[in-house]
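QA checklist item 7 of 12: single-chain prediction sanity check.
[x] sequence parsed
[x] length recorded as 563
[x] structure emitted
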Amino acid sequence: MSTTQTKPLFSALLTKLEQLHLYIKENPGFKELKKQKEVILFLSIGNMGSRATVFVSRKRSFERAWENIQKQAIQYLKKKHFLPQFLKIDWVDQEETFSIFEFIEVMTNTKKNYFRKGIALDAEYKYAFLEQEINANAFIQINKNTRRGFLHESNIKHYIKYHRPNQPMIDFNKVNVVKTFTTKGFFYHNGTCFTLKSSELDNGRRDTALDQQELKHLIVSGGQFLTQNNHENGKFTYGYFSCFDKEINFYNVLRHASTLYAMCEVYECFPNQELHQAIKRGFNYLVEKGIANFQINNKLISYVVDGIEENNLEIKLGANAAAILAFTKYTSVFSEDEYLPLAQQLAKGILNLQSPNGDFCHVLKYPSLDLKEQFRIVYYDGEAAFALMNLYKLDKDDLWLQSVEKAFDSFIAKKYWKHHDHWLSYCTNELTAYKPIRKYFQFGLLNIRDKLDFIWNRETTYPTFLELMLAAYQMVQRIYDTDHYDLLKEFDEDGLIRTIHKRAEYQRNGFFYPEVAMYFKNPQRIIGSYFIRHHSFRSRIDDVEHYLSGYCQYYKLFFKTTH
């Protein structure tokens, strides 16, 4: 690239850096930074198509450190000839020093990928890494045999080689001290600067309000991710392990169906033609590839067939339920009844799995329909009951309602409320709309009551918690219109509402904002999606669907529905 060509590029870069510099100086936190006797800055630069590159500067003032780190970035970009889309600046706020053995204990006792501080492998910060670099590159791991934490040397060396251009290679034999540190920082993207959060569990994520506009962004972005990962044949890319951009080579028709349910919810909030087309493709795949018909007792019934290996295909109660939920939601959102007969055939399949005492059989072999597992997972029961209630809302066939009531007799007898299942919360809310009976309300309250403290303090984003609480919240509002409002005397409704808002905010820590995604191998693949941190930052279609279902319900219940 000629000098003439590089001038506009670096002029644009300097403009971006100047905007970020000015934003930092105008921020109230800059007063603290100016007082520091020593300033340690990290500048991260990145694009949609590659992992961020990071520069470090340790000087006696912010301005000196800034000047040095800006110089490093410009020299690097002269060689690489690209204009970064993302700029992020962090500085060390507080630090703590550990011996090697002490740090091993810290790593060992930290939940996977929940080490939320930076680390320096020397006292001078020559080998210092941000929390985001550590986790996005899997620096910290647990030995499967000893269960002890360790630093993955090859991952660290590979990262230094390709993303720390001014840093010499580390010699781990000379590491005898480890510092951990917290940071404060700012992020620049598309002409906008963001202050970043600095508390332990949300470090490095933008500090913006969860208002109507932001909630729309969270919902629409997740819907776009699912749309982009739905192919012409209607099948989804199942997901990615985001650190190293590894596609998950597996498929699950149950989760295919439940993802379509969430996509219909997204469309209901924010209609979009591309989303609609992806939904239709997904339904075509489900109908053509995932459903088999049977004649049983002179009745046509349908089952979802799931599995990867041809000799080990199975019929799962939960898969039939997920398909019914998808079909009924589509019918409701689009006012089209083309899938209603198939939903009814699938519902007959569920009834065929129910015993006279209300219990459901969970798994059959395909194609023999022999019993494979009487019980697999508790979620199937609540999901099945919820699916039947959604179908009842549409066709008012008492068969479905009677089945749900039989199932609830079993749920109550077995104290299923102790599982605090979000599907049961959804179902109880729907059932009480048609059967406002005391025992159902009691069940719904027990399903949430003793879980609130746990949810309030939960470290993981665990998106089904929001779904659980929002369905319970709707049921609580219904209780006020019945003769059973005395049930609420000992129920902390205010606590429920506070926890709903807290979890809605906290779930943003599972969203791939650009300032988070920029440290992963392929940011453009994951920006706008959701992840599960303790599962190697997994971004899978069903992970995304649960975040979206919760946020769609939250949007409809607590924000205006105009868009």
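[x] summary fact logged: The domain at 212-558 is CATH 1.50.10.10 (Glycosyltransferase).
[ ] second reviewer sign-off
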